[in-house]
Prior knowledge:
The protein is mostly helical.
Amino acid sequence: MDQTSPIKLIDDFLGSIQIFSSAVNDLFEEQLREVTGSNLTFSQLKLLNLIAHTEGHTVTDVAAFLGVSNAAASKGVDRLVRRGLLRRV
């Protein structure tokens, strides 16, 4: 019987989780667009929810909350600012 190494099994499992997570996120964003009629992403919605319920966040705070780099968080904030949904203070 051919045995697969535990490391290979873990790699395969983690790869499957990433694919599943991406598919769920895509589905959620599609449903979000249908319900709201907007092109907000799940991350943008999470960010707006964070800002709506708490104050005084830095880009570093936003990055940590979203699990992205500071540069990606800053770009995300800039997109929402351009759309008139946020303002920098």
